[in-house]
Amino acid sequence: MIISELSGKTYHVIIYGCQMNKHDGERIAGMLDSLGATRVDTIEESDIVIFVTCCVREAADVRLMGQAASLKNVPLREGAPVTKRIVAIGGCIGQRDGDKLVDTLPHIDVVFGTFNLSSLPRLLEQTILTGEPMVEVLDSADEFPTSLPSQREHSWAAWLPISIGCNNFCTYCIVPHVRGREKSRPMEDVLADARAYVADGVKEITLLGQNVNSYGRDLYGEPRFAELLRQVSATGIERIRFATSHPKDLNDEVIQAFAELPNLMPALHLPVQSGSNAILKKMNRKYTREHYLDIVRKLREVRPDIALSTDIIVGFPGETEEDFQQTYDLVREVGYHQVFTFIYSPREGTPAAKMILEDDTPREVIQERFQRLVDLVQEGAFAANQPEAGKVVPVLVEGSSRRDETMLTGRSPKNLTVHAHIPEGSDIDELKGTFVDVKINKAKTWYLAGEVL
């Protein structure tokens, strides 16, 4: 019998970025747990720290470098079975930078990429045995990470990847360069996973892909995402969500699914990035403002209560005040429940990084526009939530509130955070992963509050 060098070690996973990274974090936990390691909640308790990184925006790079560098000053726990804390960096920054990370941060022990998640245990074992840094970054993968063991964060919810990679090549985005070209999983494999999750008691499945709407184009010659939604719905899962959607591929068949499938939740993240056709063209988004607003109209025709969220970049190279005003007006017109706002940051290797050299817009102007948009977003989110007051909504309980242990927290069908007092005599651990009906008494900007019926 082979005893793993990881047996008896503790590990802590730090995840930046998208849901795909969260799913990768669950696969890392599954692999290490199967080899006898134990996951812990803090760096101080850990023998091994693993970063699953994102390089879509500059802030994530800065956070990683700062946090990884600071690990040199965190002492090992008493009785630790290692002489130094093992630090591993994976995900998109690992894929992009490879050996450069070890040069920049000499105390890093392992670097792995997005295509060789399965290599992590071996690389950790080798660095423990030899004391030498291990770097392995592949250009492609022969299998999906779904083939690896998983340790889900919640027993009642599951990420279910349906594709990896992206073919869109938006001019600001590094994802196609670090996640590769789009590759769909066979539908029967996705459905087998979905059925297994239902049998295991999962209540909510989130289908994942860099662009879920184009699912199946590489396998079947045309997108078959609407068909996949219908098939997953038929498994009996109680809630279905998906992320992320690209507007150019959101067809009428997928829109109609919101009317036909009762377990497809009335919530959609639909990144617009800009409300200006000139900027959308520079971004290579391949749709217009008018097309986007037509999608919104169709969605609200079939599902009037749908909650929409989006991403917006402020300060893209060449953005004028008129361009920004068109974005501002679009946000006001759509009435989003949530908007993720970002100031453009150049990503090396993307076409937009070269455009920034031609843009002389002062930073303070971009910051002022950003703040105007943030103020509007907050006003819009508050207004969008007001119709929830007085309603009774089914809430999937996630646990107790971090700020008040007498309150439970969970998610409504619209993916809104809901707080309510834990009913007298109830055990929060028994409520986790169950549905409770909550009468909404207050609708705030970022959450709803009420009482359990």
Fold and architecture overview:
This protein has 453 residues and is α/β, with parallel strands linked by helices. 35% of the residues lie in helices and 21% in strands. The chain contains 16 helices and 19 strands. The protein has helices at residues 19-34, 58-70, 91-97, 99-104, 120-130, 175-179, 187-199, 217-220, 225-233, 252-260, 277-282, 289-302, 321-334, 351-355, 363-385, 428-431, and strands spanning 10-15, 38-39, 48-53, 86-90, 110-112, 134-136, 157-161, 163-164, 183-184, 204-208, 239-243, 267-269, 307-314, 338-343, 392-400, 407-411, 417-421, 435-443, 448-452. A six-stranded parallel β-sheet has the order 2-1-3-4-5-6, with helices on both faces. A five-stranded mixed barrel has the order 15-16-17-19-18. Strand 15 and strand 16 (407-411) form a beta hairpin. Helix 10 (252-260) packs parallel to helix 12 (289-302) and helix 13 packs parallel to helix 15. The chain is globular. The mean pLDDT is 94.
Element layout with pairings:
Blueprint: E1 10-15, H1 19-34, E2 38-39, E3 48-53, H2 58-70, E4 86-90, H3 91-97, H4 99-104, E5 110-112, H5 120-130, E6 134-136, E7 157-161, E8 163-164, H6 175-179, E9 183-184, H7 187-199, E10 204-208, H8 217-220, H9 225-233, E11 239-243, H10 252-260, E12 267-269, H11 277-282, H12 289-302, E13 307-314, H13 321-334, E14 338-343, H14 351-355, H15 363-385, E15 392-400, E16 407-411, E17 417-421, H16 428-431, E18 435-443, E19 448-452
Parallel strand pairs: 1-2, 1-3, 3-4, 4-5, 5-6, 7-10, 10-11, 12-13, 13-14, 17-19
Antiparallel strand pairs: 8-9, 15-16, 15-18, 16-17, 18-19
